[in-house]
Amino acid sequence: MTDPIPRLNQIVERLGASRLLVAGDLMLDEFIWGRVSRISPEAPVPVVEVTSESYYPGGAANVARNVRELGAEVRVAGIAGADEQGGRLIEWLNAAGIDTAGVLRDPSFSTTVKTRIIARHQQVTRVDRERHATLTGAQTELIASQLEQAIDAVDAVIVADYGKGFLSQTLADRIGRKARAAGKILAVDPHPYTSLVWQDATVIKPNRREAFLEAGVPPSAPVEPPLEDRPLLEAARRLQERWRPRSLLITLGAQGMLLVEGHAPPRHLPAYAKDVFDVSGAGDTAISVLALALAAGATPREAAELANHASAIVVAKLGTATVTAAELAASIARS
């Protein structure tokens, strides 16, 4: 039997050689760090004494950040407000070397901000400030035309849908048609509330909850082993029938991942994570590594394996985190 480790390491070494386009809902992640020394006399809640604040790209912008962290060239497309938060997000992305020419700044749009309050390495609460966008016909046509032109210049496209209104069926159809015509990899992280139909995708990566909602299968508790989880397998079957992607990868949290390729029997990839501190952005990291690996010549199984390693690394970090090639290589060696 061939040792897969040298092959995975070769793929990791090639991750930074690709050019990617990331399209989707852009957000700004705000972290307020502090300490708790007492309970409020006004209500049974902790009083957080703020010590620092930090900002990071969120949503599709965090996907682009993950791609860039692994050394690849990346362009991001989406919509941001002409507000302070949107300016902060664009400034962060530009400083990281991420091309933001495809970001539409709209004065009528409020940039989505997710504020997490962290005390003693624990998230106390999260506050979301958002207003769902609805693109006009002219905006949709402008963005679609820009995306079609950008697809010609990249090796792979990642679509990150967070249900905030940027993506529509019109955009989904045009991205899919262009990616297929240009022979480009299309990796989609879907959102169940938009109910978009993705055709011609190379791989689609919902998590368990998203898969059940998209497939119309009633939610149920996970079953061990996952290959005997009948509701999960039924959800996977329905999604394969609906979307017909070349590969379907359902992330299962502590259970790992379920990979379905065409009509082949599903494969279960057990999780590598030992310590879980924060799951924020784990899906962003997974779709980033998945697309980069496919662009580097990996098989769907190899790409899923690397995405599984990356997820294990990022959930052991606090906050919206990324992984490096060195961390991936170390995780492969440990496995």
Report on this structure:
With 335 residues, the protein is an alpha/beta fold. Helices cover 37% and strands 27% of the residues. It has a nine-stranded mixed β-sheet with strand order 5-4-1-8-9-10-11-12-13, with helices on both faces. A hairpin with a 6-residue loop joins strand 2 and strand 3. The radius of gyration is 20 Å and the shape is globular.
What would you call the shape? globular
Sheet-strand content, in percent, reads: 25-35%
**What structural class is derived from the secondary structure elements?**
alpha/beta
Give the quaternary arrangement of the chains. single chain
Beginning-to-end CA distance, first to last residue: 17 Å
Number of helices: 10
Q: Would you tell me which CATH topology applies?
A: UDP-N-acetylmuramoyl-L-alanine:D-glutamate ligase
Number of domains: 1
Q: What is the percent of helical residues?
A: 25-40%
Low-confidence sequence ranges? none
Report mean pLDDT, rounded to a whole number. Answer: 93
One letter per element, helices H and strands E, the order comes to: HEEEHEHEEEHEHEEHHEEEHHH
**How would a crystallographer describe the biggest sheet?**
9 strands, mixed
CATH architecture: 3-Layer(aba) Sandwich
CATH level-4 homologous superfamily: Ribokinase
The radius of gyration is 20 Å
